[in-house]
Amino acid sequence: MESVNYPVILVLTAASGAGKTTLMLKLDELRIPGVEGFNCDRVLEEVRRSSDGEDLQANILRHWIAKLCSEMTQIRLAVLDMQIAPHRALEVLTEAKISRSQIVFVDCDTAERNRRLCNERGQPELSNPQMDCWAAYLRGQADALNLPIIDTSQNSMTQGLKMLQTLVKELMLRTANS
Q1: pTM
Q2: CA dihedral defined by 161, 91, 87, 26, rounded to 10 degrees?
Q3: What is the distance between the alpha carbons of residues 82 and 38, in angstroms, rounded to a whole number?
Q4: Of 46, 113, 152, 172, which has fewest CB within 10 angstroms of its CB?
């Protein structure tokens, strides 16, 4: 089967509070031509209603891929900020015949992530053992799949942005040469 010529898709995945949205917004501030970030947690209610619990994130990714490919043709690289298990993201990207993609895991130590959730974000209900387990699960998948990992612990958001910017430039160069 042939691959469809869609924009390059970079999926940022992490547990709540790790810094993926902050990184995406800071990347958007750089105004790199053809690169645009999307917070995929903000989706149409119909996507949420049509999904059972486990497939919700996969259906959110499917929704954004369809939207990017039909409505946003000027975008060369889309950065999608979401909480999806890396193996599910790979399955959806493969199913959609997206050959030009990268999944990046954003990590943060547990204490710092929980501090952000309780203080900066005002969402102490997300600072719980289930979120800690989710973060550990995502980290295990990222390690198993040998994905790039951006660690935002200890105020290293600037370093994380530099790493993300480098990944974006590499992806854009790779796809320009293919």
Answers
A1: 0.88
A2: 10
A3: 9
A4: 46
With beta carbons less than 8 A apart as the criterion, state whether 168 and 107 touch. no
All domains of the chain in start order, with CATH: 8-176 (3.40.50.300)
Give whole-number Cα distances, 147 to 51, 72, 96, 117, 143, in Å. Answer: 27, 27, 20, 25, 6
User: Tokens 């690289």 belong to which residue?
Assistant: 77
Tokens of 39: 């917070």
For the segment 133-163, what is each residue's pLDDT rounded down to a tens digit?
999 999 999 999 999 999 999 767 888 999 9
Spatial distance between the Cα atoms of 126 and 104, rounded to a whole number of angstroms: 22
What is the band of 4 on the pLDDT scale with cuts at 50, 70, 90? very low
Measured distance CA(34)–CA(25) in Å, rounded? 15
Please state whether 33 falls in left (phi above 0), alpha (psi between -120 and 50) or beta: beta
Write the pLDDT tens digit of every residue in 65-85: 988 888 767 888 999 999 999
Which token pair is 93? 């990207």
Q: Check: CB of residue 14 under 8 Å from CB of residue 107.
A: yes
Give the type of residue at 62: R
What is the rounded CA–CA span in Å between residue 176 and residue 66? 22
